[in-house]
């Protein structure tokens, strides 16, 4: 599951018993060697899809982590790219490893639920961060994204089809969520990381109520399931006004 350069079981245990912020500060130096980092194939497919929609001028990577999404923004944004995250450790690694050529690059430490920007961006992307927000927090998060986009700007992120109940992945995720809920019931501070709480139908409704027009784009690189549905989609939510 982890490469030799990844964290040890002891390091993961210490992270899991920390707050989300401190846990990611600890994990940051080895984060890119874990399965938690968005795979390059997903990043490349999103970049390809965004190139068909763009170009854009200024882009923001929401909950940027170690900066993998900045490479996507650098391919589709002509002027500037910004990464925002509340983990100082993640931002430190991102600054060292990510230097998109020919673009103005900024790194900002902030909570995504209280973004310190005005309507300055044409594109906001996010990769793998939504499991750190409870479902009741998502409308507020989407309102923050809406507020930093210029009219006509887009909020884009990939969504994987949920695993079937007959699959091993389904039971692994169910077990992980159950363990996290027990951990949070008996230990403080909480570590919010629930992989099964982000449901596309609910998310689409929250986005539309926030004032977005929502489109779903199939990412053909990942094929389709037996029932014909896409394995991976990209959500593109456009700010109307």
Automatic annotation (TrEMBL):
Coiled coil: none
Keyword DNA damage: no
GO biological process, one term: methylation
UniProt keyword annotations, A-Z: Methyltransferase, Transferase
A GO MF label: methyltransferase activity
Claim: Transmembrane helix is one of the keywords in the record: no
One Pfam family hit: Methyltransf_25
Limits of the Methyltransferase domain: 60-153
CDD domains for this protein: AdoMet_MTases (cd02440)
Protein name, as recorded: SAM-dependent methyltransferase
Species this chain originates from: Streptomyces resistomycificus
């Amino acid at each position: 599951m982890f490469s030799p350069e990844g964290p040890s079981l002891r390091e993961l245990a210490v992270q899991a018993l920390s707050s989300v912020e401190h846990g990611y500060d600890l994990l940051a130096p080895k984060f890119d060697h874990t399965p938690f980092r968005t795979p390059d194939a997903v990043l490349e497919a999103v970049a390809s899809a965004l190139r068909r929609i763009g170009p854009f001028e200024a882009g923001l990577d929401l909950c940027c982590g170690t900066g993998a999404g900045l490479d996507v923004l650098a391919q589709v944004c002509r002027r500037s790219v910004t990464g925002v995250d509340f983990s100082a450790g993640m931002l430190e690694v991102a600054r060292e490893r990510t230097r998109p050529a020919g673009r103005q690059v900024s790194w900002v430490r902030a909570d995504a639920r209280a973004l310190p920007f005005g309507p300055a961006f044409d594109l906001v992307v996010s990769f793998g961060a939504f499991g750190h927000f409870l479902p009741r927090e998502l409308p507020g998060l989407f309102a923050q994204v809406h507020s930093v986009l210029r009219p006509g700007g887009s909020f884009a992120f990939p969504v994987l089809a949920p695993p079937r109940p007959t699959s091993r992945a389904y039971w692994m995720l169910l077990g992980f969520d159950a363990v996290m809920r027990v951990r949070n019931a008996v230990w403080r501070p909480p570590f919010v990381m629930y992989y099964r709480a982000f449901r596309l139908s609910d998310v689409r409704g929250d986005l539309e109520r926030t004032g977005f027009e929502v489109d779903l784009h199939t990412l053909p690189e990942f094929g389709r399931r037996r029932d014909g549905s896409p394995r991976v989609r990209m959500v593109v939510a456009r700010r109307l006004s």
